[in-house]
Write a structure and sequence with these properties.
Largest interface: A-B, 88 and 88 residues
CATH topology of the largest domain in chain A: Maltoporin, Chain A
Oligomer: heterodimer
Helix content of chain B: 10-25%
Structural class of chain A: mainly beta
Strand order of the largest sheet of chain B: 8-9-3-2-19-18-14-15
Distance between the termini of chain B: 31 Å
CATH topology of the largest domain in chain B: Immunoglobulin-like
Number of helices of chain B: 4
CATH architecture of the largest domain in chain B: Sandwich
Number of domains of chain B: 2
Helix content of chain A: under 10%
CATH class of the largest domain in chain A: Mainly Beta
Chain lengths: 777, 310
Amino acid sequence: MRIRFLFFLFCLITYQIGSAQYTISGYVTDTNSGETLIGANVVLSSDESIGVSTNTYGFYSISLEAGKHILKCSYLGYEDQIINVDVSDNRELNFSMSEGIAIEEVVISAEKEEADKNVESTEMGTIEVPMAQIKKLPAIFGEVDLLKAIQLLPGVLSSGEGSAGFYVRGGGPDQNLVLLDEAVVYNSGHLLGFFSVFNADAIKNTSLIKGNMPAKYGGRLSSVLDIQMKDGNDQSYKAQGGIGLVASRLTVEGPIIKDKSSFIISGRRTYIGDLAQPALNDSDFKGSNYYFYDLNAKINYRLSQKDRLFFSTYFGRDVFRFSQIKRDFRFNLPYGNATATARWNHLFSDKLFFNLSAIYNDYQFQFDGGQDQFQFELFSGVKDYTLKADFEYFYNNDHTIKFGINYTNHELTPNTATATNGDVDFATEYLPKYANEWGLYAQDDIKITSKLSANVGLRLSLFSQLGPYESKLGNGSFEDWETVKNYFGFEPRASMKYTIDPSLSFKAGIAQTYQYIHLVSNSSSTLPTDIWVPSSEIVKPQRGLQYALGLFKNWKDNTYETNIEVYYKDLRNQIDYSEDFVEDLSQEVEDAFVFGKGRAYGAEFFLKKAKGKLNGWIGYTLSKSERSFDDIEGGRWYSTVYDKTHDLSIVANYKIGRKWDLGAVAIYGTGRNYTPVGGFFLIEQNINLWYGPRNSARLDPYHRIDLSATFTPKPDSKKKWKSSWTLSVYNAYNRKNPFFILYDADVNLETGNVEISGDKITLFPIIPSITYNFTWN
Amino acid sequence: MNFKTFISLLFAALWLNSCTEPFEPDTDINQPLVVEGYVEAGPGSIAAYVIITRALPFITEIGPDQLGDLFVNGADVKVSDGDKTVQLTELCLDDLPEEAKILVAEALNLDVDSLALNICAYVDVLDELIREEGRTYNLRIETAEEILTATTTIPRYVPLYDFRFDDPPGEPSEKWARLYTTIDDPADEVNFYRYKSAVEDEPLVTPFNSVVNDVFYNGQSFEFPLSKAEDLQEEVPFEEFGLFARGDSITIKWMAIDEDHFDFWNTRDFSANSAGPFSSYTRINGNIEGALGIWGGYSVDNYRLFVPFE
């Protein structure tokens, strides 16, 4: 079977070996900033079906027959650039693109080729999320949030009120691969997930793959959120920032050597706790504070036309300090991510693009505190070292072949705790867990006929649990780097597109994926305390198999884009905690796991109006997500907490003149599942909760409307300093969406009376906010 | 309160601009039986007893009559200590003379003021069971509809010693003191402990985390602070939490328990303390086949102490 598949792949690759052609290749950049443009289209003006898109680094390569041609480069919100080329040999041709003259067109216009991507691309469930559009959406506390914006897309659910956590197509929160310049971000939330760690000012491009992920991606079952940081303006210095109610941010970028090298540095910090300091200083809690911050930095250097270096880094922390002077009680709770990515782009030829990445990422959670002589420290974290080599071979206009290899060394530290009480020391004896993860992939984007195209790929993965390790299954002790257990993953991926007419296409896809690193939470939301656990001799890799079908149609000269996608996911080796799980340090997390299976299926409907003063989208998802564990209620299939039958999002932007941008978001969703209290029982004269079947009840439906208005006083100002004000209202009609149920019981055995109450707790009422934004250029 | 709950609530306290409205669950689930029974060994221990009730449905208010109806009467309750099997006798407070009522209430650690409620228990009235460390006890209950079974063991007792009171951490206090004690944890076995405390003649109170195992300190001898168990239905200022008032007489009931017994209280305490915005649910892990609850063996000692003035 596998040999047949590889033979088929080979046949497809070698299907078209035509007459001699020449290659035109180069980069597409923004004229003003020098930023490379990802996903720009370069097409033949005379036959727009012949064309290519720029890759993640803004590089393209197109094959043309000898002779005179007119090449057109287009990109969303930019003026087309048309260049006559006389092709007689391979040559380099760079496009420098200018933003559209009319600013209002930036978001709302979509060039034909751009809009056609919806229909033309072989990819399924893939959405590019323009930062310009995200910045115009209403935002809670005025903090523009990438992760909250993607929750408005069909198939993507929020993990809770105001949360930046998300679930994709019935998958768990750990099944999303979140990448920032290729580095894995293991915890993408600040303040228990109410804010994401991504500073919108530092982000260039975001794409979300909800399923059928190409073979170049691996390690997660549900989705890939691929975020690219800006490279930095290599033409002139620029600063931008904002001052909000809870946080402020500042970004500075500019050339180090014009046209050759640039930098960007961006920071954000909250000051809620700082504002409370005068009050805290006069209280018993002097010294307590909470804040979070993010720092992004990136530099790049063009060594030659064929070589370019990038170095980017992110560092973010939540810092919580608590102090109670009267009883000498205090603790510090810092946690956060650090990433660093070094990349070398090299053109081996005008057809073969190469990228080498060395990546480091580190998530740490720490707690240290004490009282009097008692001191306590707790630490958990994930640290990865990754080396990746990726090749893109632009064989001809009908074959774009990507292949590569990557290696990651994981170090996962479970909850390790140490404590001292005077002269006595206490400590857990849990060692970090080590593993190697390898991925080898190849994929080809193939035009088989003018109507039929496909993307086929294969990923082979290998995960090795390494020593030092003491087997819990009686397999003895393992030394440093000694292999404890190997897992091999065979991950074929395929999708195809059939063009019924130029505005209508049918797509189908299938993808098998393996996941070797897991996070299980017994909370309704992911928390910084949740522990990432590797596959081991006890924990098998998760496996997902997704089937998807889609119909894509554009209407009225691409004014409207629509698509319907249906999917089915078969999930194996799913992980959860046992029902009597108690979070304490007396056992390793993996020892409390139970293993089972899952299934998720649904239909997604998407209508987008891409042009005009009024633009936006409507997304609706009808879905089901279930799990079954032998050790939970005897294997009964139950709905997951991220099972939402109906999920509707309506997003609208409206431009009034040149000064006002209005935005609105309306959300309706089925209420979240929860495990109901069946009743209570008395033990030692205290009331204890007794639960019904898992997730067998639902909270009330969730709905709200958010509004925003952005005012730019002088949109045509030629001054270097430009500013705007954004007013946002979250939950405009003050809907009391239940966040959780809090039970309380009052037992009075003197009178023989018991009072039991359950209260629906609402988190966020109506929240207005205002933000001042500025740019200096 | 577990660690996650602690930080969750602290975070939540920063953010919860919350409002509430009453909630009525839409569930219709049969009420299971609940068993609460103990067999103790050691100084001050009491005869074995078992209380059988039905779980309460989600009713917002329950009066003394309804509460009294929860007690299951007429069950056949037997306990075997390995050598002999003893039939426990059902006693309901209303059937006892006033003096006996008070004695029973004290033995069951019930507030004498609660005697308005007709509590029923199955008691080894003649104290026939041999109650000693290392012995295993099998419980068998037969009601009109169900047969329930459970097993527990009374483990070896590990005493506390060198009790002392000191100023609480931080600022000195004339009113409050902190209790310190010492334990020699045996190295050759896994040990599980539970404790309660009482002030003056009040009933013993269970702290919100009432059990601990020796994973962290197996085989060590060390001094540690032992907090006063606070009644969670009363609000206690943070700076007084876990401290004893100077001048009070107090009782510490220190108990060694087996693993199943530990699991019950561990899940029970976690379930009770982890309710909140970020918590899922935890089922209380009882050891009764066919019902909720616990059949628990204790080896106990009661330490009566006086909290000295400064």
